[in-house]
Task: structure prediction
Amino acid sequence: MNYTALEEEQMLGYIAYALLYALFVGYIVNVARGRGGKPWLWGVTAVASGLILMPFVPFGLLIGNALVFLWVRFGLGRGGQQPGMRWSCPECRFLNERYAVVCEACNKPWKQP
Ligand SMILES: [Zn+2]
Result:
């Protein structure tokens, strides 16, 4: 089957969009884990909210992700002390991001040093 240049360009666009989307979902899953949430639950929520928005909003998939991301990053795990900087886990030495309130490698909660 032969594709025209335009079709090829469109396909590349879709692939780039899908990759961006997959990366975003992966990032949300990571942040959710760091904030002490259930990673799979937030991954599913991100995908579901994107699919719900998609028919109504341009770039609904990404916007759904963005909304869930904002909640996971700033809503989840709020209250209680925040690390405020990158920290290395005393248990497994994993270097965690500043948003992480539990170790992203071994799930041990961050403690004030
Ligand atoms: Zn750890």
User: Anything to note?
Assistant: Residues 89, 91-92, 94, 103, 105-106, 108 surround zinc ion (CB under 6 Å). The mean pLDDT is 91. The longest strand covers residues 87-88.
